[in-house]
Write a structure and sequence with these properties.
Layout: H1 3-10, H2 13-35, H3 45-51, H4 55-73, E1 75-76, H5 77-86, H6 88-95, E2 96-97, E3 103-116, E4 119-123, E5 132-136, H7 145-148, H8 161-180, E6 192-200, E7 206-216
Parallel strand pairs: 1-3, 5-7
Antiparallel strand pairs: 2-3, 3-4, 3-6, 4-5, 6-7
Helix pairs in contact: 4-8, 5-6
Organism: Rouxiella sp. WC2420
Protein name: DUF2291 family protein
Pfam family, one: DUF2291
Length: 217
């Protein structure tokens, strides 16, 4: 008697059947995995995209929509200041994006004053004397106000907090390239600027504005 025949006699038909079912299920699972597996060539652009988040490419894609949204919703600085002074909660609801520390879209024309580390004071007519507007022009653009200005970019869109933070940095760099690269930001003092931008309401009496459009007049 052959070895296979001997083995078959030693194993019960029920056991053989169970093994057969297990083998069939395993094969079906392997086929399913194969059908749902995407093959990406190592070193290809697609491979690089899957391995790492590209903040600058994200910023290049996201900034035009952010700019369009902000310019469409921007409120005159004097109007916004009056609304915040009259009823801050109502102004946040009407003009702000976000809950605890909302981001506002604002527009103004003013005379640039003293600057330090790329942040300039701007004197805007029609505003209360105790309200300061500061404009950041780089070289470093800080904060995530641009990222958060529309409310459409959410943490859940990204793999983790690092990607979420890097997305904001990528957007800032794209804004700098599109908006500020054509302006002599080192010599703005004394000049009149027309600005549309965003700021987070950290201090109602001190707005740090990040521009999405800026014209030196």
């Amino acid at each position: 008697m052959s070895t296979l025949s001997t083995f078959s006699h030693q194993v019960s038909p029920r056991t053989l059947k169970r093994w057969g079912v297990t083998l069939a299920v395993t094969l079906a699972l392997l086929v399913t995995i194969g059908l749902n597996t995407k093959v990406v060539k190592i070193g290809s652009a697609e491979d690089a995209a899957e391995q790492a988040f590209a903040p600058d490419k994200y910023g290049e894609k996201a900034f035009p929509e952010i700019q369009k949204s902000v310019m469409g919703r921007a409120v005159d600085a004097a109007t916004l200041a009056t609304a915040l002074n009259a009823d801050a909660n109502a102004a946040k609801t009407k003009y702000g994006v976000g809950d605890a520390l909302p981001v506002f879209s604002v527009s103004f024309t003013g005379v640039v004053g003293a600057g330090s580390s790329g942040i300039y004071q701007v004197k805007v007519a029609g505003l209360p004397d105790d309200l300061k507007i500061r404009l950041q022009t780089g070289p470093a653009i800080n904060g995530t106000d641009l990222r958060d200005a529309t409310g459409t970019i959410q943490f859940g869109d990204f793999k983790n907090q690092i990607e979420y933070q890097n997305a904001g940095s990528g957007i800032n760099r794209e804004m700098k390239k599109v908006v500020l690269s054509k302006i002599d930001t080192a010599n703005l003092s004394g000049k009149t600027v027309k600005v549309t931008g965003v700021f987070r309401l950290l201090n109602p009496k001190n707005w740090l504005v990040t521009p999405v459009e800026m014209v030196v007049q």
